[in-house]
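Researcher: Good morning. I'm working through a list of sequences from a screen, and I'd like to move beyond sequence-only analysis. For each chain I'm collecting a predicted structure so we can compare shapes side by side. This is the next one on the list. No need for commentary yet; just the structure.
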Amino acid sequence: KACEQVMEEKLDLAIVNAEQTAIDKCNLHIIDTEDLLFCVSKDHPLAGQSTILMNMLNNEPLILFNTDSVQVMTLTRQFKAAGVNPHIILNTSQITTLINMIKAEPIGAFLYRSMVETYPDIIGIPVFPSIEQRIGVIWRKGKYQNAITEKVIKYLKKRDSECYFVPTHIFIITLVKKMCKTTLADCFHKCFPLFLNLIIYV
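Model: Good morning. Structure tokens for this chain:
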């Protein structure tokens, strides 16, 4: 969806999961790499596992993101390669719904590692082989960029040259703060709608 909106000039920039097939139609700058963890409640039968193999999830109740999400497309390929028939209870785009179901039911889900760290009641178990997803910023090829877009691209390149890492959500807040020259409190207000849109694309 994000690639299409950038190509149609509905968006100047988008932060996306870079594993989608249409990504080569846009300019892409990778800002992070996230691995997926299998997530369950502390009472789940698999909670004590140090590593999850895909074949351990055959007929295991799962809740996944919407079927058109890049993450789910990646997982579908992994399940197929392992000969696994997942028991998908629900597909949703709502993080709150997903987290609440994990806490209340013997059900599992896949979340990015950085997301799991914000939910102490959830156990995140590494998957083997690991499933890594690149997160990047895209913009349209061969198009004159407005001043704000140019500023974002310049900041991205400067960030890489300084060779330091911050989580993606902190990077977004820092970026908006630098661009808008605003207070941190105002910055959170500016970023909040952005986070809601990011859920769709990532």
